[in-house]
Write a structure and sequence with these properties.
274 residues, alpha/beta, TIM Barrel, nine-stranded parallel sheet, Glyco_hydro/deAcase_b/a-brl, Periplasmic protein YibQ, distant homology with nucleoside diphosphatase and polysaccharide deacetylase
Length: 274
């Protein structure tokens, strides 16, 4: 009997792994590159797009599968989002949320003085204001993302589109935004690295890119956010073509989320047999 069980165990493991692969198939990445389980994978979001055509165009024309987040109702957001889409780049909504600083949010901003109806209505209008979006992240929001009730409203309102993901920009360590998204089955991720926390400091951007790669090598994946500053774009234009030689895969954010989910599921399946 023990001999029979020892033969059945490998077969059981194989069946379980095949089932895991099938269950994760809906989450497989859409990138053109083949992603292997041991590949080092990164995503980069360029935020705050839509107000300036020249810098926005330069950002969209960066080489590789970057992801672009557009503020709603800005003069060039629709045009640049269309350009990104024609170049097979992923598009996001960069959703303005109230900050501790009280800085002006611009059109489409969500604030804590809004009631639930106003809040959800404004969010849905913003989602429809930017074409081709696959997900959304917060612009500022250090005040609002600490509030679980209003984060719940955001995720409930976003569920009228069942294909959106959410990225928490993590403008405060006290954020609860991603937790509220996950409670409602919305796929998501959080920002790991800010590339340019000081504007046009090229040395800082290079240091942060090094930190991005170091984190990706340690964790398998990493997600960075940058802005269409001249210094940031200059550094990225030189750095992005080096990724292949470094053995790093750059993918859209939707792919990064899928890769993380698939790998997590596979690790869980393997751990259940140890």
């Amino acid at each position: 009997m023990q001999k029979l069980n020892s033969r059945l165990l490998p077969l059981t493991l194989i069946i379980a792994l095949l089932f895991a692969s099938f269950a994760a198939s809906a989450e497989l990445p859409q990138t053109d590159d083949v992603i292997h389980s041991d590949d080092i994978v990164i995503s980069i979001i360029i935020d705050d797009l839509g107000n300036h055509l020249a810098s926005g165009t330069r950002a969209v024309e960066l080489p590789g599968a970057l992801t672009y987040a557009f503020l709603p109702y800005l003069p060039y957001s629709p045009r640049l989002a269309e350009l990104a889409n024609t170049q097979h780049k992923e598009v996001m909504l960069h959703l303005p949320m109230e900050a501790d600083s009280g800085k002006s949010l611009g059109p489409g901003g969500l604030t804590q003085v809004m009631n639930e109806h106003e809040f959800k209505n404004e969010l849905r209008k913003s989602i429809n204001a930017v074409p081709h979006i696959r997900g959304f992240n917060n612009h500022m929001g250090s005040l609002l993302t600490k509030n679980s009730e209003q984060m719940k409203w955001i995720m409930q309102a976003a569920m009228f589109r069942d294909d959106l993901y959410f990225v928490d920009s993590r403008t405060t360590p006290k954020t609860v935004a991603l937790q509220e998204a996950q409670k409602r089955g919305i796929r998501g991720a959080k920002r790991d690295i800010f590339l340019d926390y000081e504007k046009d400091k090229e040395d800082i951007v290079r240091q942060q890119l090094d930190a991005l790669i170091a984190r990706a090598k340690k964790k398998g994946t990493a997600l960075a956010i940058g802005h269409p500053y001249k210094g940031t774009l200059k550094v990225l234009e030189a750095w992005l073509p080096t990724l292949k030689k470094q053995g790093i895969k750059l993918v859209p954010v939707s792919d990064l989320i899928s890769i993380r989910k698939t790998r997590s599921h596979q690790r869980w399946q393997l751990s259940s047999f140890h």
